[in-house]
Amino acid sequence: MASKKPSECSNLGYHVIWDIRSGKIDEARAVIEKHGLQYFELWSQDTPLHLAVLNKYKGIVKTLLDRGADINALNSEGMTPLDLAANSQLCSIVELILCQKNEVISSKWANYPLLHSAATSSVIIVQNLLDKGLEVDFLKDGLTPLHRATFSGCLAVVKCLVEHQANINAVSNSNYHLGFAARYVAQLSAKQAMSYLDRKNTSPISSAYQDKETPLSLALLLSNEKIINVFLSHGVDINTVMHNGLTPLQYAVKNDKESMVLFLLKHGADIKILDKSGRSILHFTLPLDNSSREMLKVVEFLIKHGANVDAVNKDDVTPIFGSINRNYFGKTVSKSAVLLLKAGANVNAKNRKGEALLHCACENGNLRGVKTLLKYGADINLRSFRNMLPIENLLTLTVLDTIEKLEIVKLIHQRAIFLQMADLYLDKFYSRSTTTNFNWSGRHLDNFIVSTEKKACEEINDLKKKYIACNLTFYSLLMKSSHELAIYKRNPAINKIIQSIDILEVFPIYGSIILRNLVAASAPMKMIEEAKKRDIYRVFPQISIEIIEHIFKFLNNDDFFNLIRALI
């Protein structure tokens, strides 16, 4: 191609510069691709590459770079195109320039705002900046680059930062309400997420979510398994206690992140660790229970792998109280709570007021809760520290103004009749209150009592007829003490027969009491096994173990436990 005259080059260069400034991208690119860049040396101001960067024209930048534009050219202010792109945090353009074969001479471009911007998307920029000596945990607006990379889900940048010893447990500044942001954008794209994060959130709702976050806790909130894997592979203990006093598993459960919970459990998270308030993992599960299929899987998994269904926290309450207190037993019965009851959770556990679950359900007028608790053996005779029965909570503190509340009274009195018919203990309150708590005529009340007594008699006869062993019926399971049952439960054949029957299905009236008795028998059974392990029977050298255990049958529960503890 014939060389151009200076005037021609000047005019052509002027038009290209003007096209770039005017946004005529296609025209400028066409001239550059046709004539090259040699004539632009006549210009002493910004080169086309400078202008393309300033105007954020990534397409022209790429074209200019492909045609050999000088990435180290200085404009009238001594700035290279890379300096301009870095100052404006134009990460995609910075990345284009850094990928050129020519060495970058300028060092002005390396800055912390760019590091934070690049942390959301560009590992090339981050790597180059860290190689320039920038501090990996430099804070900007209360966040480290690793916070931003984790939040945006940029795995490559996360790996790069962690390999450069970024602090996985660095705590964010709560002014940005990062915890709220993470919850809000969990389902959004990375771009939307960072757009939200870069705006200070001043809406009233955010004030409820001012928890400080670490990259680790953010990854849990956003359920990012790949990032969690990176953290674990770089030395993070899966059972580490985080800045908030919780383990990753506890934090995931608390925030209702089912997939994250299952992921952590499969990777060996310890379900037996308590938080600083003495809460077990199930204490976190039940108050947040939404009965979703995923959360039910979590609860089942926890129970199957040994989570203590009766663990008490510093308030002396068991996990199942969380469902009662959150009123999940009101309109819908908590399925997770039922799982705990099926697993043998103590349905008669009490809180610091001496109130059992049935007290709470009655006080709230929760009909479905009362039905569920009675089904699993709730004791209507338990009194609180105020000397109140569960039914008295309902009668004293509320007005029987709904069908549900009247139905609760009926259910509890029905249970009272069942206990009376089986010669089981019944508080004297029930004998004097039956007629006063029903707004029924005498005939309706009589019919109710007769019908209830008939059902009880029929089931008692069935219990007496159904044998487990030659001298043991299901009626025996209803009437015997817990340490007597403990002796029977040690017999594998008896245990097998008991476990082969759905007791609640076969004996709908007394089955729950039998199950409660069998659960209660587990404690003395464990004590007896512990006694045998420690060979305490040696203190009775002249008496066989069988006779010793027979003697134990005649001790009440307190005496039995005191004896075993003393011997142990």
TrEMBL record:
<keyword id="KW-0040">ANK repeat</keyword>
<dbReference type="Pfam" id="PF13857">
    <property type="entry name" value="Ank_5"/>
</dbReference>
<keyword id="KW-0677">Repeat</keyword>
<feature type="repeat" description="ANK">
    <location>
        <begin position="44"/>
        <end position="76"/>
    </location>
</feature>
<dbReference type="InterPro" id="IPR002110">
    <property type="entry name" value="Ankyrin_rpt"/>
</dbReference>
<dbReference type="GO" id="GO:0005634">
    <property type="term" value="C:nucleus"/>
</dbReference>
<feature type="repeat" description="ANK">
    <location>
        <begin position="244"/>
        <end position="276"/>
    </location>
</feature>
<feature type="repeat" description="ANK">
    <location>
        <begin position="353"/>
        <end position="385"/>
    </location>
</feature>
<feature type="repeat" description="ANK">
    <location>
        <begin position="141"/>
        <end position="173"/>
    </location>
</feature>
<dbReference type="InterPro" id="IPR036770">
    <property type="entry name" value="Ankyrin_rpt-contain_sf"/>
</dbReference>
<feature type="repeat" description="ANK">
    <location>
        <begin position="211"/>
        <end position="243"/>
    </location>
</feature>
<dbReference type="Pfam" id="PF12796">
    <property type="entry name" value="Ank_2"/>
</dbReference>
<dbReference type="GO" id="GO:0000976">
    <property type="term" value="F:transcription cis-regulatory region binding"/>
</dbReference>
<dbReference type="InterPro" id="IPR050663">
    <property type="entry name" value="Ankyrin-SOCS_Box"/>
</dbReference>
<dbReference type="GO" id="GO:0045944">
    <property type="term" value="P:positive regulation of transcription by RNA polymerase II"/>
</dbReference>
<protein>
    <submittedName>
        <fullName>Uncharacterized protein</fullName>
    </submittedName>
</protein>
<feature type="repeat" description="ANK">
    <location>
        <begin position="277"/>
        <end position="314"/>
    </location>
</feature>
